[in-house]
From TrEMBL:
Fe cation 2 binds at E121, E185, E219, H222. One of its GO terms (biological process) is deoxyribonucleotide biosynthetic process. GO terms for molecular function: metal ion binding; ribonucleoside-diphosphate reductase activity, thioredoxin disulfide as acceptor. Belongs to the ribonucleoside diphosphate reductase small chain family. The lineage of its organism: Bacteria, Bacillati, Bacillota, Clostridia, Peptostreptococcales. GO terms for cellular component: ribonucleoside-diphosphate reductase complex. Binds 2 iron ions per subunit. Tetramer of two alpha and two beta subunits. This is Ribonucleoside-diphosphate reductase subunit beta. Provides the precursors necessary for DNA synthesis. Catalyzes the biosynthesis of deoxyribonucleotides from the corresponding ribonucleotides.
Amino acid sequence: MFCIVLEEEMSKKKLTREERIQNINNSIHKAVNWDTEDDDFTQAFWDQNVKQFWLPEEVPISKDIPSWAELTESERILYKRVLAGLTLLDTKQGNDGIPSMMDLTENFQRKAVLSFMGTMEEIHAKSYSSIFTTLLSKHEIDDLFLWIEEEPLLQNKAKIVLRQYKNVEDPKSLYMSMATSVFLESFLFYSGFFFPLYLAGQGKMIASGEIISLILRDESLHGKYIGLLAQEKLREFSYDDRNELKDAVYRLLKELMENEEKYTRMLYEGLGLEDQVINFLRYNANSALVNLGFEEFYKVEPVNAIVLNGLSTETKTHDFFSTKGNGYQKGIYEDLEDEDFKFDNI
């Protein structure tokens, strides 16, 4: 397994508390200046991220309750488990993936965009819990989160990703963290996205499908932005280092795909959709490679038309510079009073 920095080398680079304080005292502290464009794309991505901001509370999930009751038991198990897997990935991306890139990113505007993206990952995780709260009992939710901890293929996926995120100490490991993030944003999520899109395209679980569409649009933006940062970072290396990193990226992709195919077969085989989902995974893995500036790697058959329509329709699009989906309703807010900040249990 490719690992950029050995633990021994990492320990040598760690500063003592006194050294860190000395560095702070000797530094000139700067502020982000949005009136100067640091590159030709970051401010556009900031604007689009802000324009796309949404909250799960503003999507009427309760409208799915009748549809949920009409699903078969196998369909309900699959639906809640794919969302549980997505919750784990969003948790790791918000808590580990985005911060791992921010730490070694010196440009303040880029840090701001990454920070906003990290916030959206947390909102995505919260949105799945909003679906669970609406559709499941407390006992079912507890069992579902226990399943996350006990499912070996899902846990292995998190371990593979975290091996990169937890070893960011230098430019090479920063690049690998960026590449891992692009794979997560543009590829790994999609085994979970397939079934909600598949059902929504048939008029089932429409509100929850709208949340997936909103998340898809965000992840598309994240994958493109981090992909641009990764391409720029790769150009900084020597020819030999670029080849070394490219080989590492493909090894990582193959390891992730091997695990993801097993995970997909475990989830979907009861409904006979596993081959379609794996084809969908390869389609999106190719998209992730394109985001990184590489050529497509997998041979792909035509993607399920219903699911593909969920990716490309104008009213529910996650394409770059799209607007909010057609099921999204901005909430109505009242002015806050002092009494609103009084809590009985604090």
